[in-house]
Amino acid sequence: MSGPLPRLSPLLEAVLGVGTDLELRTTLQRIVDSAAELTGARCAALGTRDPGQDGLAEIRTAAPVSPSPGLLSVPIHVDGEAFGDLHLADKRYGAPFTAEDEQLLHVLAAQAGIAIGNARLYEAARQRERWIEGAAAVTTALLAGEVAADALTTVAERARILADACAGVILQPTPAGGMEIVTASTYDDPVGIVGTTIEPGSAVLEQLLGGEPVFVEDSATDPRMTTHVRHRFGPSMMLPLQAEGRLIGTLALPRRRGERPYTPAERLLAVQFASQAALALVLADARHSRARLAVYEDRDRIARDLHDLVIQRLFATGMMLESTRRRCPDDDVHATLGRAVDELQWTVQEVRTAIFALQQPPADAPTGLRARVLKETAGAAALLGFKPSAHFTGPVEHRVPDRVAGQLLTALRRALATASRRPDVTRVEVSVDATATLPDDRDAVRLTVYDDGRADSEDGTTTVWQSPL
């Protein structure tokens, strides 16, 4: 490989071109395309030695490369380690690859190693930033005063989005010594997932109850996985939600069968997210307990005041009226005083009932459709990089039944997921109209999701879902 480099101008353009983008997949595609253009190959491919490290398998241009005559391959090294191999085949006009082609390819491979290293650093920084922002968003949401069930759902939803998983699942220990799925966030209908249990004796259960993370390459075939829903999923992470020595549960993030495995970086970031989320759950629980205690104390004070002041005075007044009634000979006055005594006794019973109610634990406020829609849009912000806007028309809390609300939320998740995968999305608008009507004049609820990303239409994409009420 001695002597001046031939075809210097195209080589310099190729070398400069492979380093112009910091997105890893785009960088790899530029490398493959530049290699094919420099050497005149019709087929080019870049295969990685360890697909699990970057979540990539093969990048290619034109047809797949086959080990036929005329194959030229060079290795690519990143930071001194083998990253993969650049393969070329089927040179134009049937000509063989030359030593000059190989020399060009080696120079390009050296520059590609630098570009891939930079892209890796950039991708790692972006991933870390997204997970940190997601953990901060979860902490903020939990400390805002959400009830326990909603807090777990928030953790599951945000983790699902950040991990690009098909589901976010929370499992908690059962009295029998197993674990049960208590909440699930999925793009699709989660029917059949919540309530699924891992029975005592499962090989994976000891690790989960011990607070150890478990990583599974294929949930459907791994013998440690015993639930009836395992066939739905492929790669999965099962992460302990543990803080201050307390195991709250396990966060499971499965992907669909056939999807790429989790990289070591993704696993590390997810473990850190789970630790942060667990601490936020503990703090939120403590804060919620303090708030409930303050409510109890205030209610006890009100109950004591009612009992000590109101009840005693009402009772004394009733005794006075009863004594007056016995001494009064007039029948009309006697009847009137009797009715007054009865009213006072009834009032005493009502006040005592109110005192008893004040001494009971306050019921958790139900979460309506409006709040659930806002939670979905807030969760999508971690993936989109901005929060979608949401608009509501009509009494959505009262007109939309739970069954239809669940279907609407499933449609919303799908629409937001589709929007997040579209290029150049800068704006997403969500609208829920509870005053809509169908063509047959039936009352309906309509969901409209608009995004301005590139698609077949230059004006963005609008997704509409509706259902009769």
Automatic annotation (TrEMBL):
Pfam families hit by this protein: GAF, HisKA_3
SUPFAM superfamilies: GAF domain-like
Superkingdom assignment: Bacteria
Molecular function terms from GO: phosphorelay sensor kinase activity; protein dimerization activity
UniProt-listed SMART domains: GAF (SM00065)
One GO cellular component term: membrane
UniProt keyword list: Kinase, Transferase, Two-component regulatory system
Family matches, as Gene3D superfamilies: 1.20.5.1930, 3.30.450.40
Signal peptide range in chain numbering: none
Protein name (record): Two-component system sensor kinase
Species, as recorded: Streptomyces lincolnensis
